[in-house]
Amino acid sequence: MLIQKTLSSSLCAVALLVSAADIKADSFTDYKQTQQQNFQADTQKFIYYKNSLNQDFLNYKKAQQKAYNEYKEALKKYWDKPELSTKKRLVHYTQDKQTKTAIDFEKQKIEIQTIAKNKKEAKQKLAHALLKATLIDTKQLYKEDELLQKIAHIKTPSSIIKADVDAKPILAPVVFDKKPSTDELINYTKKTLAKNPIQERVNSKQKHVYTLNVTLPSDTTIKRSRTYYQEVQTAAKKEKLTPALIFAIMHTESSFNPYARSYVPAYGLMQIVPKSAGIDAYYYLYKKKRLVSGSYLYNSRNNIRMGSAYLHILYYSYLRYIKDPQSRLYCTIAAYNTGAGNVARAFVSSNSVKYAAQKINAMSSDDVYAHLRRNLRYKEARDYLLKVEKRRRMYKKIYGS
Questions:
Q1: Which helix (H) or strand (E) segment is 101 a member of?
Q2: Smaller CB count within 10 Å for the chain: N or C?
């Protein structure tokens, strides 16, 4: 009887344990299913949001392109080949579209063209345009440029962040060592016009076009870099980068053209692409997935902050498996131009940086540099690495490490 009671008690205990185990197993299964469902839901939300961002950007890009096309059509009334700003050439027209000022930051030259009835009128218009180009700052130019204003007034969804353009001098610090007086400005304009012959031609619209070419000082690029010295220092310190690297990237991307724009499109001093590097950098800085507008990136402080943030992401996150700091730096420079995946493919047959790092870590930094120069897929990226590294060393001598 005792044995039977004991056996019965044991069986009940076992039954309870099995029942508890079943309940626990069921609970764990439910938990796993819930977690999986939540993960899938979050993934779907992220994919939907990313697609939404991409669609917002495509719509914004289309609206921009429409504004560019319409403006170009309006310019065709006066000019054979209407020209707009590019990465290293800032182009600005007067409101009547009959005077064009083009600042070539890479070649360190100004080309001013005007349509006039005669040479006397042309000389007055050219003198005024030269004076304006010398004195104008980024904010004033933004307000006065018809195309930039058309783009600024494009209706944008809430996912696209806009900002005011800051006021930074463009050519004044290049031409003058200090703030010029009125007499100094007048003398500079007179001397420049006297020294540089005015060329005349008749275009296909039967318009008399007068051209003035002005060569800027040979140290123009270095002087332009000084305009952004404080912002670069701040960003470098925050992102654990060297100022020389940031300056070298800016120099190579835009030659310090504050209104640089490429066909991608990429914007501003460090040529940020809103739908790729822009999203990553903005999220890193503000923990929000957002697209940024052209005006946001034409603000030098925002542009340098985001470009430096993206360099930080490349160096400290995407390429973190590369152990040698110099090797990782070379790969970061290349990745800024062509992407981390393409850097990996220069070493292995996939875009896995972790896999490529195994090969990179077995090489010296000099060998890594030479390998990238030979094996990066695109010539542009191979040349980019060469230019940035050369300029990084130059800016290191100028500004220190």
A1: strand 99-104
A2: N
Mind listing the pLDDT tens digit for each residue in 141-152?
Answer: 999 999 999 998
pLDDT tens for each residue of 188-217: 999 999 999 999 999 999 999 999 999 999
Do 176 and 209 fall within a single domain? yes
CA 167 vs CA 85, 104, 141, 252, 258: distances in Å: 19, 20, 9, 23, 11
Written as six digits, the tokens of 230 are 């404080």
Q: Domain containing 190: what range?
A: 75-136+171-219
pLDDT at 37: 54
Which residues does 260 contact at the CB level (< 8 Å), separation at least 6? 85, 86, 87, 88, 90, 253, 254, 266, 267, 268, 269, 271
Query: What distance in Å separates the CA atoms of residue 188 and residue 193, rounded to the nearest whole number?
Result: 9
The residue out of 191, 219, 247 marking a domain boundary is 219
pLDDT tens readout for residues 41-53: 555 654 555 566 6
CA distance 211 to 199: 5
Q: Which two tokens stand for residue 71?
A: 């403006």
Nearest-angstrom CA–CA distance, 187 and 193: 10
Neighbours of 45 (CB within 10 A): 10
